[in-house]
Design goal:
Elements (H helix, E strand, L loop, with lengths): L1 H29 L1 H17 L1 H5 L4 H37 L7 H19 L3 H12 L4 H8 L3 H24 L4
Helix pairs in contact: 1-2, 1-4, 2-4, 4-8, 5-8, 6-7, 6-8, 7-8
C-alpha cells in the first residue's frame, strides 16, 4: 500500500510541476486544444501502467519525449484524416455521375443512406454537429470552427472520432456483428 501511495505521489508531483510546461511544449506542435488533451492522456496512461511509473527516472525528459511522440502521432492522424476526406470527397463527386436505373440498386442505396443517417444521428452531439457541417453541408473545417466557436484542430478531432465510429458501426452491420 505504501508503494502505491509513493507511486501516486510521484505522478501527482510530476503533474503539478510539469503539466503547464508540457502543454506549452505540445501547443507549439499541435495547438492549444489538442495539447491539453495529449498531456492529460499521457498522465492517464502513466497512472494506468505501473511499470511506467517505476521506470520514470528522468521524469521531465521522459514526459517531454512522450509529449513529443504523441503530438507527432496526432499530427500524422490529422494528415491521414485530411487525405482520407479528400479521397471520400472525390468518390462522392464521382457517384453523382453514375446512372443506376436499376430498382434494386435504388432500394439498396436508400437503405444504406438511411442506415448511415441513423448512425450519424447516434453520434455524440459535438461530433454530429461538426460532421454534418463539414461532410453534409459543405463547410470547410475553418468555417465550421468559426460557426461552432471551437478551434480548427477540435473540428478535425471531432471529424476523426465521427469517421472512426461510423466506420466501426457500418462495417459491424455489414459483417453482422454489433460492435
Amino acid at each position: 500500500m505504501a508503494k502505491f501511495a509513493q507511486e501516486n505521489s510521484k505522478i501527482e508531483t510530476a503533474f503539478k510541476t510539469y503539466y503547464r510546461l508540457l502543454c506549452f511544449y505540445a501547443e507549439r506542435i499541435v495547438g492549444k486544444d489538442a495539447a491539453e488533451d495529449i498531456v492529460s492522456e499521457i498522465f492517464t496512461k502513466i497512472m494506468e501502467n505501473k511499470e511506467l511509473v517505476e521506470n520514470m527516472h528522468a521524469t521531465f525528459s521522459y514526459l517531454r519525449k512522450c509529449v513529443y511522440n504523441e503530438s507527432l502521432q496526432y499530427k500524422r492522424q490529422l494528415l491521414k484524416l485530411r487525405g482520407y476526406m479528400v479521397y471520400v470527397n472525390e468518390i462522392q463527386d464521382l457517384q453523382y455521375l453514375r446512372t443506376d436505373d436499376d430498382p434494386l440498386s435504388k432500394i439498396i442505396s436508400t437503405e444504406m443512406h438511411n442506415e448511415i443517417m441513423q448512425e450519424i444521428i447516434a453520434l455524440p452531439q459535438k461530433c454530429r454537429e461538426v460532421f454534418i457541417l463539414v461532410r453534409l453541408e459543405g463547410y470547410t473545417p475553418c468555417e465550421a470552427a468559426e460557426k461552432l466557436k471551437i478551434s480548427e484542430n477540435t473540428v478535425y478531432t471531432h471529424l476523426q472520432r465521427a469517421m472512426k465510429k461510423l466506420k466501426k458501426k457500418i462495417i459491424g452491420k455489414q459483417t453482422g456483428s454489433n460492435l
